[in-house]
Amino acid sequence: MKRTKLLTIVIIQLLTSLHLMAQTDPVFKMEKDNGHFFLQTTVNGIDAHMMLESGVPGLMMSEAFYEAHKDSLKMELTPCAERIRYLHGMHNVKFTGHARLRIGDALFDGPVKVADGDHKLLLPINMLRHASDNSSVVRLDLANNEISVCSQAHLPELIDGATALDLTFNKWSMPVVNTVLSMNVEGRRVNLPGNFIVDMGNGSLLFLNKSQASVVKALADGKVNLKQAYDKNGKVVAEGIFAEQLIICGRTYHSVSVGVSQFKSLEECGFLGLKFFTMPAVFDFDHHKMYLCR
After folding, report:
1. How would DSSP label each residue in the chain?
2. Please, is 106 exposed, middle or buried when counting C-beta atoms within 10 Å of its C-beta (0-12, 13-18, 19+)?
3. Cα-based distances in Å from 178 to 166, 169, 265, 269
4. Exposed / middle / buried, residue 4 (Cβ in 10 Å: 0-12, 13-18, 19+)
5. What is the pLDDT of residues 154-183, one digit of tens each?
6. From CA 36, how far away is CA 71, in angstroms rounded?
7. What pTM was estimated for this model as a whole?
8. For residues 288 and 276, what is the distance between their CA atoms, to the nearest angstrom?
9. What is the 3-state secondary structure of 131-144?
10. Do 94 and 116 form a contact (C-beta atoms < 8 A)?
11. Which of 49, 47, 50 is nearest to 73 (CA)?
12. Is the separation of the CB atoms in 249 and 177 below 8 Å?
């Protein structure tokens, strides 16, 4: 009888341990380089250096990486003739398709696009999934250079006391938050309600899209003169605003620069970049929520 009870206890403890192991959340350590965050991880067991992203339409893979490992990746891709703009210029997309890949101890499930060149791999966090329950919950902690892919079971404890905002996704599958931007610029107030892309590939705090009429009108109403930066040949290479105070998504910043450029293919007012996420944030992409933690 005693042996039976002991065996039962051992079995229960073993099952509990296996359950806890299955629920372990993968944590990726990151390194910061030139304003961006990178993961040294694996793709289907292949060593890979990946840049944290969310402002891209899928896992962006270099042609060099794809050609070197396509037999191991086993992806069903088709040739295409798309074009895509990265920070450093335009690229030709050679192949595209949908894939489910293992990224370290987590999963990627979404579009894959193979572009020419030997650039780093760009990993959209909104397409990461937990291996045990297939949930798409990501915790971002840039202060500690960590990103975690979490189970839905762990979500309540992660968002305790956090501020919740709704997320939508644009036609490129980029996460978008609707909010109001308020700025003090040269003693004048600028208010701009609209949609802003959550862009992990953007190292700045905020970029505005001058292709949107609402952005142009808000700047004109506030009588804001854009500051211009020139190259050695006198060509304008960048425009921006210096804001004494900036409030967005309920967070306040002082003495910050805001970039202004044209993104003709996008309908959003601008981009929220990495400098916005100075405190931990949790994204529940399954339920279209972003939580800003204290």
Report:
1. -HHHHHHHHHHHHHHHHHHHHHTPPPEEEEEEETTEEEEEEEETTEEEEEEEESSSSSEEEEHHHHHHHHHHH----EEEEEEEEETTEEEEEEEEEEEEEEETTEEEEEEEEEESS-PPEEEEGGGEE-TTT---EEEEEGGGTEEEEE-GGGHHHHSTTPEEEEEEE-TT--EEEEEEEEEEETTEEEEEEEEEEE-TT--SSEEEETTSHHHHHHHHHTTPPPEEEE-TTS-EEEEEEEEEEEEETTEEEEEEEEEEE--TT--SSEEE-GGG-SS-EEEETTTTEEEE--
2. buried
3. 7, 11, 19, 10
4. exposed
5. 999 999 999 999 999 999 899 999 999 999
6. 30
7. 0.86
8. 19
9. CCCCCCEEEEEHHH
10. yes
11. 47
12. yes
**What is d(CA 93, CA 84) in angstroms, rounded to the nearest whole number?**
7
- Residue whose structure tokens are 């967070």: 251
Longest dimension (CA), the chain: 90
Predicted pLDDT at 278: 87
The per-residue pLDDT of the chain, averaged, comes to 89
Q: Within its chain, how far is the Cα of 280 from the centroid?
A: 13
What lies within 8 Å, CB to CB, of 100 at 6+ separation is: 107, 108, 109
One-letter amino acid at 98 equals H
Confidence of residue 264 (pLDDT cuts 50, 70, 90): confident
Cα gap 255→270, rounded to integer Å: 19
- Per-residue tokens: 211: 């292709």
* CB-CB contact of 32 with 145 (8 Å): yes
d(CA 202, CA 1): 65
